[in-house]
Structure formats: structure tokens, C-alpha cells
Amino acid sequence: MSLNDETITAVSELKLKGWVRLGLQEDLGSFLPTVLGRFARAHPDVRVEARIARNADLLNRIENGSLDLAVAWGGVKKNGYQETIVELPMQWIGSSHRYLDWRVESGNPLPVIAFDAPCPFHSKATDALNLAGIPWHLSFTSSSLNGLSAATEAGLGYTIRTALGLQSGTELLNIEDRGLPALPSIALTLHRHEANPNPLTERLSSMVVQAIRSEIA
Questions:
Q1: How far is residue 114's CA from residue 112's CA, in Å, rounded to a whole number?
Q2: Measured between alpha carbons, how far is 174 from 10 in angstroms, rounded to an integer?
Q3: pLDDT per position as a tens digit, 156-187
Q4: Is the peptide bond before 118 cis (omega within 30 degrees of 0)?
Q5: So what's the pLDDT on residue 159?
Q6: Any idea where the LysR substrate-binding domain is (predicted)?
Q7: Going from the N-terminus, what domains does the chain have, and what CATH number goes with each?
Q8: For residues 188 and 212, is the Cβ–Cβ distance under 8 A?
Q9: How many Å apart are CA 138 and CA 169, to the nearest integer?
């Protein structure tokens, strides 16, 4: 039995009722919906509402109370309850088909694929490029991770995420081979609207944290 199955079995022994609203990053979309589905089936009296959105939207919804829980990239904020789930290194990502073979010695600007600002991956990557004196330009922007991944797979540029939820058709790049700058780590953080939540929100929080840690183990 997997850790996720064990977690769901344990919480299914509780008689949970109510409504809980959860916000997620797209990077978690490959595995967390399955876990949430099992949780919902184990608790037919619980209504789970999940939303995938970008950081700023998720954090705004936590602040105004329209979400109970959210998993977002970046460090803790001054207000509300937060728990760092894991620290992951940011990675340069390219097409697994090797359609683009950019190298720093070419002198050509690096085509970058990223979300529009504000985005922690966008800002940290471009800061690192500027510090290293590497010219770059935004070759593709999108409001969705699927859009970034499709453009990366097609060879329109290199993007920046973590290894978590790496999309098909893309791969992590060897930065030494290409002369790409090293990138910092980034925290994946659980945010809660209330510091002392009800038992349902507390149990779902624990399940989400364990599922993510199990995925990266």
C-alpha cells in the first residue's frame, strides 16, 4: 500500500463532514487530483472544491477567505498560517527532442519561456542571466503550465520550473554543458486561511503535505 493510500485509509476512519476549498499549482496536477478523488470517495459527506491557479491568485484567495488551503511557490508571508512542505532546486528545462541546442559560447540571446511577471521562476531566472551577463529575450509567454511545456517541447526556448511534475516531451538540462547560470531553490508552501482550522481542513492539509512529500521521495 502506498503512503497516499495509507493516509486516505487512516482519514477514512474519521466521520468527516463539511466543505473545504483548496488551491493548487499546476505542477501538482499530475498526481494530486487522483489523491483528492480518493479522499472525496472515502468521505461522501465532504464537499471538496479544488482550483488550479497561479501564485498571486491563490494567495489573494487565502487572504480574502475564498480558499481554506493553498499550495503555492515561494517563502512564507507575514500574515496567515504557512508550512514549508519542501525546498526544491529550480531547473532549466528544454525539449527532450533536442530541437534547441543553445550554448553560451554562441553569443546569441537565450530564448526564455516563462509566465508573465510576477512569477518567482521568471524573476529568479532572469536575475541569474543578468548577473552572468548572458543576453536573453522572452520567446513565449503563457497563462498555463501546459502552454509553457508545449512551447518548450517544440524548441521555442528554455523554461524554468522544478523537477516536480516535469511534463512529457521536456527534460532537465545540464547547465554546465550549455553555460546556463545556476538557479536557487524555491519553497513549496502550504497556506491556510485559519491558524486553527476545523478537523476537516486539518486532515486535508496533512494529506496534501504527505502526498507531495511522497511524490518527491
A1: 6
A2: 41
A3: 999 999 999 899 999 999 999 999 999 999 99
A4: yes
A5: 98
A6: 17-207
A7: 16-85+185-214 (3.40.190.10), 90-182 (3.40.190.10)
A8: yes
A9: 20
